[in-house]
Amino acid sequence: MTSARPRAACLIGWPAAHSRSPLIHHYWLRTLGIEGGYNIEAVPPEGFAEFILHLAAHGFVGANVTRPHKERALALSAPDARARAVGAANTLWYDGDRLCSTNTDVEGFINNLDASAPGWDKASDALVLGAGGASRAVLFGLLERGIKRVHLVNRTVTRAQALADQFGAAVHPVAWDAIGDLLSRAQLLVNTTSLGMHGQPPLEIDIGRMPADAVVADLVYVPLKTPLLSAAERRGLRSADGLGMLLHQAVRGFELWFGRRPEVTPELRALVEADLTKV
Ligand code: ATR
């Protein structure tokens, strides 16, 4: 008689950076009573193609992919529209023998906004700071939810222009010094840059001019409460933080691999929060 091994997924990175994903998935496995595993696999770039093309033979039903492999994961799998639009895949699973991929940052961002600031999508004008990979996920999500105008500001204007070309007429690239004027009509502000992150320069904008019903989202989660989120709180604006997005983006992978849709609970949040603030 063969004894079936428990299902397992993994996080593939190089180097295998300290990640909160094992903490999150182990919490869900434990609380849902599922016998399964979630490992960290340190795979160098030269071994990545072999590893994911034989993911099942390595013992995994799926994987998360992190730096520096996300673009190659896209090229080596069957990506959905989200992964293609973002230009990177972070979640892999099998549909039969086919290795499929998506980018769960899109739903991580959107579902966190839905949970933290319901009704946020009534905004007609959004202001997004940054034009890297995270910004692509945010733009895809905002446009999918029907936001009419997204003003996109980036230090390097050509990158904002390139995203406007990709995402179409709803995305308007604007210069950094236009932020002041745009804030007075933006009902949603999203920081996707690394500004305000621990060890990075501060994000110096004054949100005092934003409408009273505006929502502020920051993708930075170290520190948990960025100066931008503190400023939003002081003004009484609703906000969505980077930790919430991190937790919500993990839901889909777990569901695909283990067959149950897990919940982002206050207990999970507290667990990860404690890990983030550990010295
Ligand atoms: P990610 O995948 O997390 O989006 P990224 O692709 O490296 O990471 O993008 C980082 C974003 O932060 C970019 O928009 C970057 O601006 P540039 O395109 O001009 O590089 C922005 N960023 C990083 N450091 C910055 C700084 N000191 N001032 C302004 N923007 C900054």
Quick tags:
six-stranded mixed sheet; 279 residues; 12 helices; binds 2'-monophosphoadenosine-5'-diphosphate; alpha/beta; 12 strands; six-stranded parallel sheet
Characterize the structure shown.
This protein is an alpha/beta fold and 279 residues long. The protein has twelve helices and twelve strands. The protein has helices at 21-32, 45-53, 70-75, 81-86, 105-116, 133-144, 157-167, 179-183, 227-235, 242-249, 251-258, 266-276, and strands at 7-13, 36-42, 62-65, 78-79, 91-95, 98-102, 125-129, 149-153, 171-174, 188-191, 215-218, 238-240. The strands form two sheets. It has a six-stranded mixed sheet. Strands 9-8-7-10-11-12 form a six-stranded parallel sheet, with helices on both faces. Strand 1, helix 1 and strand 2 form a beta-alpha-beta unit. Helix 5 packs across helix 10 (242-249). The mean pLDDT is 96. Bound molecules: 2'-monophosphoadenosine-5'-diphosphate. 2'-monophosphoadenosine-5'-diphosphate binds next to helix 6.
Q: Averaging pLDDT over every residue, what do you get?
A: 96
Estimate the helix proportion, in percent. Answer: 25-40%
DSSP strand content: 15-25%
Radius of gyration: 19 Å
Ligand types: 2'-monophosphoadenosine-5'-diphosphate
**What is the succession of H and E elements?**
EHEHEHEHEEHEHEHEHEEHEHHH
Please outline the helices and strands:
Layout: E1 7-13, H1 21-32, E2 36-42, H2 45-53, E3 62-65, H3 70-75, E4 78-79, H4 81-86, E5 91-95, E6 98-102, H5 105-116, E7 125-129, H6 133-144, E8 149-153, H7 157-167, E9 171-174, H8 179-183, E10 188-191, E11 215-218, H9 227-235, E12 238-240, H10 242-249, H11 251-258, H12 266-276
Parallel strand pairs: 1-2, 1-3, 4-6, 7-8, 7-10, 8-9, 10-11, 11-12
Antiparallel strand pairs: 3-5, 5-6
The structure holds 2'-monophosphoadenosine-5'-diphosphate.
Residues 130-135, 154-156, 159, 192-195, 201 line the site of 2'-monophosphoadenosine-5'-diphosphate (ATR).
